[in-house]
Amino acid sequence: MSHSISQFIYKGPHSQVLLFTMELDQYLKPHRALVDILIIAATGSLEIGEGLAKHTLNAGDHITFEKNIQHSVLALTPASFYLIKLAPHEQQNATHEHQIPIHE
């Protein structure tokens, strides 16, 4: 029986990164994430389902989902992808902007 393999690449206070490896035609049933997520195709091709919509990702492509959006993953070829869980960041000061110093 084939199965997808996932492993944690990074666990931090505001994000987690997992690497999934899937065989041809493997399918992750519809599910929801508790936080916003970013999926980046690393190798191969994937079909990402979002309700009735289908999105094809090839190596290097990405898609994002807000929390609680139901989605599924089908491997169209042997494939791997990064799943990045993005925890909400609280803004300490809504008017604060990140400024990059310019050297002249």
What is this structure's SSE topology?
Blueprint: E1 5-11, E2 15-22, E3 27-31, E4 36-43, E5 45-50, E6 53-58, E7 62-65, E8 71-75, E9 79-86
Structural write-up:
The chain is mainly beta. The chain has a single domain (5-86), classed as Jelly Rolls, CATH 2.60.120.10. Helices cover 0% and strands 55% of the residues. It has strands at 5-11, 15-22, 27-31, 36-43, 45-50, 53-58, 62-65, 71-75, 79-86. A hairpin with a 3-residue loop joins strand 1 (5-11) and strand 2 (15-22). The radius of gyration is 16 Å and the shape is globular. It starts with a strand and ends in an 18-residue tail after the last strand.
Structure summary:
By secondary structure, this protein is mainly beta. The protein has strands spanning 5-11, 15-22, 27-31, 36-43, 45-50, 53-58, 62-65, 71-75, 79-86.
Largest sheet: 5 strands, antiparallel
Tally of helical segments: 0
Q: Name the overall outline.
A: globular
Computed over alpha carbons, the radius of gyration is 16 Å
CATH class: Mainly Beta
Mean pLDDT over the residues: 86
Counted up, domains total 1
Strand content: over 45%
The strands making up the biggest β-sheet line up spatially as 1-2-9-4-7
Question: Helix and strand succession?
Answer: EEEEEEEEE
CATH architecture: Sandwich
Terminal-residue CA separation: 61 Å
Number of strands: 9
Task: Enumerate the spans where pLDDT stays under 50 for 5 or more consecutive residues.
Answer: 91-104
CATH superfamily: Jelly Rolls
